[in-house]
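Appendix B: complex inputs.
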Amino acid sequence: MNDPGQWSDGAAAHHSPGPAPESAPWAVTGPDAPPPTEPRKRLHPLSPVLHGAKSLAVIIAALSWQTLSRVGLGWFVAIVVVFLIGALVLSVVAWFNTGYHVVGRELRIHEGLLWRRTRAIPLERLQAVEVVRPLLAQLTGLAELRLEVVGGGKTEAPLAYLTVSDAAVLRERLLALAGRRPPQAAAAAGDPTAPAAPAPGRLLHGVANRDLVISQLLTPQALLLPFGLAFVVAQFVYEATWSFIAVASTLTAMAGVLLQPARRVLVDWNFRLACDDTGLRVRQGLVETRSQTIPLNRVQGVRATWPLLWRPRRWLRLRLEVAGYGMPDPQENPADRLLPVGDLPTAELVLAEVLPGVRLAALPLTAPPRRARWLHPLAQPTLGAALAEQVFAVRHGLLTRHVVALPYARIQSVRVVQGPLQRRLGLASVHADAAGGLTAVAGDRDVTEARALAVELTARSRAARATT
Amino acid sequence: MIPYARGVTDERTDRVEPTAGPIDPLEPWPETVQWRPVSPDLIWVELVRLAATIAVFLVGLGIGWALTGHRLFGYAMAALLALALWRVGVIVRAVRAWGYAEREDDLLVRHGLLVRRLSIVPYARMQFVDVTAGPLERAFQLATVQLHTAAAASDARVPGLRPADASRLRDRLTALGEHRTEGL
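Resulting structure:
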């Protein structure tokens, strides 16, 4: 990088205990360090005050009412003030040691006095830069700059706080360096869950509500319901000691268990999947109709699941793993359900839109060697891994069968893991990670094959990256 | 078997045919990859950490022994010292097991004694790089470099680097990662 001197001091290669010279990469401000290409900037001097004010609520909550009633109001205020001053001092120290500057095409953020951290963010990776103004910041005329990188749900690098004008200037500068489009267009692209227009594109598939209800009745929760009810009735009839409250609480507990299949039915009612050139459109819901658009270039992988109880009907479920800046929390997002229930031909039809050329039935899955039975006595034949044309696919699960298909272009990293038993048996597991927590694990492969898999996955993901 | 691996493993007997030396699945490119060790000073950092932890427990047990005079506290202290000795051996070997290698397009990191792990992280997938150093690490002139990707499971952390090596690696990572991609 065009940053000579300060960050690379070759003379520090020998070991000398004692205070570190300020030439280290984590050195914050060295009096003898040559000035970098751009001086390190501090956050606004009011920042520690705002951070301290934020901790006030935490302090009061931590002390609780109990402490207040025990020590009286005067002492309570005194304790709060002592803690607040402590928090303020820490905030000031943190502010003093926090700095940021742009070096070349990356933003560097330095933090910490004792535990020092330098974070380097290549600006090409910025998905968005937002100027956010929480209430406290609005009152003081400050703003927080949030840098969103893709993948993580949380903001990885907030700069709190700057003056509004500084924040706006820095934002423009970062976006210009990153070579992004105008911010409005970027914001629109990063908001794929905006309510879609009611007129969808080509209808791909609709799930029959009858199938949906049957599929949710064929879940362990629903099947256990009659037994639970019989138990409650029997207790109520034969045991006079059972009060109404006991019955009510049992029923409440059972309702909690039952809620999930019922909610699935409500959410997935009238499930309609359509596609147009922007992506997949999903419309679903009985009480609350949701329609969402899933941009296909955000799809990280597909997970197919065959629950044990659905096997007589040969049904399966498809889920999408979607990642990217601006995606809502995956736990609350039903849009990742590509197919709530369906048979294999339907699944292939839907899958053909998401991952063209991938067929679930035609994946060349192979089982690990027979000696993997020592680790999986029953499940060994159900394990599988395949290097298909476009995806890395793995299969696992004895009762509930899962198949995970991960396009090579979406692989973030490849890992090889070998435990002590695996080493003894000459086996190793290969993990392929995608954004959003999806990991395809080829478990207990032969060491030769594991090594070849790692090489092949690395090569194929590089090739796939180059073409996209 | 996956087609390309055919011929190396016999289907019926499931025995690995002898090839040149034992096969290490954590060495995908044995001919071309130059592994670099982490600094041996990391052993001292870990040993100081261990000593501090052990000392805290020893003082606690010693106080208990002095107050109650029960023999069990003495046994516990002896057991603790034995554990500490065993940990010393583990630390020395674990630090030697850490290694990293820079290939043209990806960073390799391997570590672990009991469970051995190898991570292959392409530079093009990098979101940001952290260089961290705690007080103890700085006393021994060490730093840790961690590469973050969009996948939480990616495990590319290299401890025990000289500051110069750490900044060189950081700069190299960010320079190589600067492609016009989203990192997804």
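Residues 127 and 149 of chain A are 5 Å apart (CA to CA).
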